[in-house]
Design brief:
With 138 residues, the protein is mainly β. The protein contains two helices and nine strands, in the order ββαβββββββα. A hairpin with a 4-residue loop joins β7 and β8.
C-alpha cells in the first residue's frame, strides 16, 4: 500500500475533529475521510508493511486536544454515535492499552468528555506496537 493513501498533513480530506498518530519513523498521520477503507485500517496496513509502530496518539475535537502517553503497547481509536430523544451526537474515543487493560477518553463534539478504564478492546480498535504484532503472528 502506498503511503499516498494516508494524510501526512491537514488537507481537504482531514476533518476538524480527528485523531492524529505519531509514528516510530517520525511521520505524523491525520485521520481522513477519503472514500475508501477507514484511515485506522489503512494505517495498520502501512505499519505492517513498513514494520512501524504508533508512538503517540492525540485527538483534536471542538478546539481541544487530548494526548495519550507516548510509547504504549497499543493505541485505541473508535467512533460512537448516540441518540437521546431528538438529540444525537458523535463521540471520538481514543486511548491506550498496557497489560490487557485500557484507558479510553471519549470526546464529544459539544466539548463533553468522559474517561473510563476497561479491558483492552483488541483488534480492530487497538493497533499494537510492531513488536507485539510480530509476536501475535508467530
Amino acid at each position: 500500500m502506498s503511503d499516498t493513501f494516508l494524510s501526512k498533513k491537514v488537507d481537504k480530506w482531514v476533518p476538524p475533529n480527528r485523531w492524529v498518530a505519531s509514528l516510530s519513523n517520525g511521520e505524523t498521520i491525520f485521520e481522513d475521510v477519503r472514500p475508501m477503507a477507514p484511515t485506522w485500517e489503512r494505517l495498520l496496513i502501512y505499519l505492517d508493511e513498513n514494520n512501524l509502530s504508533i508512538t503517540g496518539l492525540r485527538a483534536q475535537v471542538a478546539g481541544l486536544e487530548v494526548k495519550m502517553p507516548k510509547n504504549q503497547e497499543g493505541y485505541i481509536q473508535k467512533k460512537r454515535m448516540w441518540t437521546t430523544g431528538a438529540t444525537s451526537g458523535k463521540v471520538l474515543c481514543i486511548g491506550y492499552c498496557q497489560g490487557g487493560l485500557a484507558l479510553i477518553d471519549e470526546l464529544g463534539e459539544d466539548r463533553s468528555s468522559m474517561r473510563r478504564y476497561c479491558r483492552d478492546p483488541e483488534e480492530p480498535w487497538t493497533i499494537y506496537s510492531a513488536k507485539i504484532r510480530k509476536m501475535r503472528q508467530e
